[in-house]
Amino acid sequence: MLTLAGCGKESQQTGEKETVIPIEATRVEKGVLNDITVVTGKLKALATSDVVPSGQGGKVLAVNVEVGSQVSQGQTLITLENTSKASLAAAINQAEEGVAQAQSSLEVARINYEQAAANYERGKQLYESGAIPEAGQAGFETAYEIPYKQAKVNYEETAPAALAAARAAVALARERYQEQNNNSVIKSPISGVVTAVNVNPGELASSASQVPVVTVVNLSKVEVETTVTESLINKIKRGQEVPVTISAVSNKPFTGVIAKIALAADPTSKAYPIKVQINNSQQTLKPGMFAEVQIKNALPETLLIPRDAVVKKGDVDIVWVINKDRVKSCEVTVGASDGKKIQILKGLKEGEQVVTSGQNMLKDDTKVEIKSQVK
């Protein structure tokens, strides 16, 4: 007589209870797997400025920053001795005096012109009324017309031109003064952090030197310069977000953005250069750190199961398929994997349940109990 007890059944031949194996399971589903390609490179600052003096340089009066200083664009880094300041200021004063003299000359020219014009009109009336005979025309021109024309040219052309020249001289003197002032103050062309200071007060700072006086690096963003193959170049785009792992800082990937994609391959490597930018507001990412960029390529939709559901049996990949409360091993053909999911190209159907944990205890027709469903 057959007796049932618990979750097992008694064997007709031996009378022993059948063992039930606890397992975890999941259903075969359709989905899209990302094929991940990892490319590597080193971090670079988004912007680096090696600052040198403008003009000829000069003697250093003050160094206003040190390594590690945060600076803003336009902030003064180095102050140089300005030996020409007094003479250039005097040149401005002299040029301004020239403007005052030219303005005074223009006013005199105006008065002279108005007087000459009045005399000319009076003489013209006398001449036209016959008070001055025709034989006296030469005397009229000498006494009235020529002085009038000369005064007119002086007022309308000569004196204004002299005033314009005087004002241009002032502008030039001020420009030279400002240029010298600008040259005596070395400012930061970018915002960032100072990474090197190569001069001290009393030393000479020269624009001809091969060594910058100060180096400023903008670390608000960093970038990775790397390359991709021709098989990937048309599958990525500018603005695309990509995970970037910098293991020196964290095992958790940072979010990078593809900022530049070369239109032509490098002639030596035949690969296409790209640049990936990463926000670095905390400035924990430093130039020179090694970075791994993950580029995901969406594959065609296929059947997917957890990678752990596939086990090796010799050279064959098998999956344990659940039919009611029994299992059967099925040979499968697998495709790409992202480490968690794997493509099933042949051997399974959508909706079937497969074992994801506990396979080492199984053989065909083993009775199982699903303890949990894995997604």
Shape: elongated
> What fraction, in percent, of the residue positions are helical?
25-40%
In what range is the share of β-strand residues? 35-45%
Mean pLDDT: 87
| Rg value | 45 Å
What is the succession of H and E elements?
EEEEEEEEHHEEEEHEEEEEEEEEEEE
Structural class: alpha+beta
Q: Tell me how many strands there are.
A: 24
- How many discrete domains? 4
Sequence stretches where pLDDT stays below 50 over 5 or more residues:
1-13
- Helix count from the secondary structure assignment: 3
Distance between the termini: 42 Å
Major beta-sheet overview: 6 strands, mixed
Keywords, separated by commas or semicolons:
alpha+beta, Elongation Factor Tu (Ef-tu), domain 3, OB fold (Dihydrolipoamide Acetyltransferase, E2P), six-stranded mixed sheet, six-stranded antiparallel β-barrel, 3 helices, disordered N terminus
Describe this structure in words.
There is one protein chain. The chain is of the alpha+beta class and 375 residues long. It folds into four domains: 21-34 and 301-373, conserved putative lor/sdh protein from methanococcus maripaludis s2 fold (Beta Barrel), CATH 2.40.420; 35-45 and 217-298, Efflux pump adaptor protein, beta barrel domain (Elongation Factor Tu (Ef-tu), domain 3), CATH 2.40.30.170; 53-81 and 184-205, Beta Barrel (OB fold (Dihydrolipoamide Acetyltransferase, E2P)); 85-183. The chain is 26% helix and 39% strand. It is built from three helices and 24 strands. Strands 3, 18, 19, 20, 23 and 24 form a six-stranded mixed sheet that branches. Strands 5-12-15-14-13-16 form a six-stranded antiparallel beta barrel. Strands 4-17-22-21 form a four-stranded antiparallel sheet, with no helix packed on it. Strand 21 (333-337) and strand 22 form a beta hairpin. The longest helix has 47 residues, at 137-183. It is elongated and about 155 Å long. Residues 1-13 have low confidence and may be disordered. CzcA and CzcB together would act in zinc efflux nearly as effectively as the complete czc efflux system (CzcABC). The CzcB protein is thought to funnel zinc cations to the CzcA transport protein.
